[in-house]
Amino acid sequence: ARFELGKKVIITSALEVWAHSIYHVSHWKMDKIRAVDRIFHLIDGAGELKGYNGPLVDAIQTVNSSTGIGGGETNYFRFRCYRNGNLHLEFKRLGLVSKLNVAAGGGNQLRGR
């Protein structure tokens, strides 16, 4: 089997909805989501992220959950938040995805959507 990251991934159990109707990244998935953001910044040559959470986590945690589905975007990602806790993450810069696949997979493919 070949492994390559595709255009979109779904991260299950990534989100929690707090009483004031704002999505929050689950503490169980926080490090993984921050790492994805950091990797894309580094591959792009933008350097290390400033701040604790980074743009992706900060953007997710400003989405109001009262409508059920909400979303947003950063320089590298479009995302949709769902009340079931899933985060749909679409990569905006597919050239960076290709660079990541070469660096991490060594030519193998990991299927995304």
Structure description:
The protein is an alpha+beta fold and 113 residues long. 28% of the residues lie in helices and 23% in strands. It contains three helices and six strands, in the order E-E-E-H-H-E-E-E-H. The strands form two sheets. A four-stranded antiparallel sheet has the order 1-6-5-4. Strands 2-3 form a two-stranded antiparallel sheet. Strand 5 and strand 6 form a beta hairpin.
Unreliable stretches, pLDDT < 50, 5 or more residues? none
User: What pattern of helices and strands is seen along the backbone?
Assistant: EEEHHEEEH
Global Rg? 14 Å
**Strands, total number:** 6
The first-to-last residue Cα distance is 16 Å
Main sheet: strand order: 1-6-5-4
Helix content: 25-40%
* Largest sheet, strands/sense/barrel: 4 strands, antiparallel
Tell me what portion of residues adopts beta-strand conformation.
15-25%
Mean pLDDT: 84
The 3D shape can be described as: globular
Q: Given the helix and strand composition, which structural class is it?
A: alpha+beta
User: How large is the count of helical segments?
Assistant: 3
Question: Descriptors for this entry?
Answer:
single chain; 113 residues; alpha+beta; 4-stranded antiparallel β-sheet; two-stranded antiparallel sheet; 3 helices
Chart the SSEs and their pairings.
Elements: E1 8-11, E2 15-17, E3 23-25, H1 30-43, H2 55-60, E4 69-73, E5 77-82, E6 87-91, H3 94-105
Antiparallel strand pairs: 1-6, 2-3, 4-5, 5-6
